[in-house]
Design brief:
CATH architecture: Up-down Bundle
CATH class: Mainly Alpha
Largest sheet: 2 strands, parallel
Number of helices: 18
Strand order of the largest sheet: 1-2
CATH topology: Amino acid/polyamine transporter I
Number of strands: 4
Number of domains: 1
Helix content: over 70%
Oligomer: single chain
Radius of gyration: 22 Å
CATH superfamily: Amino acid/polyamine transporter I
Distance between the termini: 42 Å
Order of helices and strands: EEHHHHHEEHHHHHHHHHHHHH
Structural class: mainly alpha
Length: 468
């Protein structure tokens, strides 16, 4: 049974003049949610920041790699990956709004053992991040390879170091609004270009037929495709990492501050429901965008690369991927593809740097290394991590030099991170959610469908790996 009220340790100040910290619930920041759609659109953004983080690694590389290997047969899996996870994202975002808690604050309140100052779930998350660093190293490599193709005179290693420094410089100040705007711009540019390429595909020898689309919706999964498929399932659409990051972007957008600290009053309940609806709209529109982009990438990979037995691997990954565009739009499209590929990959690197720095600062606060709500101390840590993380990812890429493999390993581990995300979402829904905010039957059905699908995919993947 849900508890009627949950004690929240989020600092609450009487006036907004004391601090501009977006994580502190100021009573002066309370405002009613917009009622008209046009007004509501002004408050969207967190979902698109999150989407920008997956476009490069998930859609551009993992999705097309699966399409290139398997053809159309696993199209259903990619679509399922995009559609089923949004219910979990909604539950996490909702929790951030009605509690004002950060991700790691919420994890540290989970039932179960603590090792030192933090809950077992945080230690599990930290273990998985070892492999996520490989994934981000692969993204650094993808960005560097793209730039090297544009300017071959500069070695890939030099481009990797240079873009690492540029990313840190852009992110270290840590402000939300520039991150939101730049992420949205980069994502929209490549989205439009990819849709144009899919349209042009139908006027080439690689055109897609309806029987091929039907084949992709038959729920088949060839055994030799299991590892790549599970990795793609974990990394396409919104992944476990992005769901955890989503809370920070919702908080920094102001949803929790606008709602105000928890109160047993009709006014608070009305505000909470209103801002949760805005968050639902944000998440839904973001899902529509990344689902369409994912479908487009997969179709290009299956139609162009698979038919020519071209599989994106190693340093040739970007050159191979460019075939999807030059074969449909002409040789001139390679230049535009380079610009688009750079934006898709760099959007992931850029938003991931901002996200990693926030969530690790939160972890360090739970470990007692700093006070999260000490605004200057937190800003200093965010700035330091914005330099440290990209540097570590760059070193991993320069040492391993296998960007696709690094990204798929990270994606495979993200599938297991999703199991933790499901467990926490269940805890939010049935142990933390105030009775006044209980959702309807349709929401719960979607929520359980999401949770069940993720568990089935993760267990199936583990069984197949153990068999192999």
């Amino acid at each position: 049974m849900p508890t009627p009220a949950v004690k929240v340790k989020v600092p609450v100040l009487e006036t907004a003049s004391v601090t501009t910290d977006p994580y502190i619930l100021n009573l002066d920041k309370i405002q009613d949610p917009p009622k008209k759609l046009r007004e509501a659109l002004r408050y969207l953004g967190p979902g698109f920041v999150m989407s920008a983080a997956v476009v490069g690694s998930g859609e551009l590389i993992a999705t097309t790699a699966l399409g290139a290997r398997a053809g159309f047969v696993t199209f259903w899996l990619i679509m399922l990956s995009c559609l089923v996870k949004v219910a979990l994202q909604l539950e996490w975002g909702k929790h951030a709004i009605y509690t004002g808690e950060t991700t790691m604050t919420a994890l540290n309140k989970l039932p179960g053992k603590k090792l030192g100052k933090v809950n077992w779930s945080i230690w599990l998350w930290l273990f998985i991040q070892v492999f996520k660093f490989l994934q981000m190293g692969g993204i650094v490599g993808g960005v560097a390879i793209t730039l090297h193709m544009a300017v071959p005179a500069i070695p890939i290693s030099v481009w990797a170091v240079f873009m690492t420094l540029v990313t840190s410089l852009l992110v270290y100040r840590g402000y939300y609004r520039p991150i939101e705007k730049l992420s949205l711009f980069m994502m929209l540019f490549f989205t439009v270009f990819t849709f144009a390429s899919v349209y042009a595909l139908q006027f080439t020898p690689f055109q897609i037929s309806w029987p091929e689309v039907q084949q992709g919706l038959t729920f088949a999964l060839p055994p030799e495709m299991v590892m790549v498929a599970v990795a793609a399932f974990g990394i396409t659409g919104v992944g476990g990492d992005e769901i955890m990051y989503y809370n920070y972007w919702c908080l920094e957008k102001g949803y929790a501050a606008f709602t105000g600290p928890k109160q047993d009053s009709p006014e608070w309940e009305k505000r909470a429901r209103g801002w949760i609806r805005i968050m639902y709209l944000d998440a839904f529109l973001a899902m529509v965008v990344y689902t369409l982009v994912t479908a487009a990438f997969y179709m290009l990979g299956a139609a162009v690369l698979h038919r020519q037995e071209l599989v994106p691997e190693g340093y040739a990954v970007i050159k191979t991927l460019s075939e999807m565009y030059t074969q449909t739009l002409g040789s001139w499209a390679e230049v535009v593809f380079m610009i688009g590929a750079f934006m898709a990959l760099y959007s992931t690197l850029f938003t991931a740097t901002a996200s990693f720095s926030r969530i690790f600062t939160d972890v360090f606060a739970q470990l007692g290394w700093l006070q999260f709500y000490d605004f200057p101390a937190r800003k200093r840590m965010l700035a330091w991590l914005a330099w440290a993380f990209p540097a570590s990812w760059c070193v991993l890429f320069l040492f391993i030099k296998l960007p696709v493999g690094m990204i798929l390993i990270g994606g495979f581990m993200t599938s297991f991170l999703l199991l933790l995300v499901v467990f926490v979402a269940l805890h939010f829904r049935y142990r933390r959610l105030p009775a006044a905010l209980k959702p309807g039957t349709f929401y719960d059905l979607a929520f359980w469908l999401s949770a069940g699908t993720i568990w089935v995919m993760a267990i199936y993947g583990m069984v197949q790996v153990l068999k192999g």
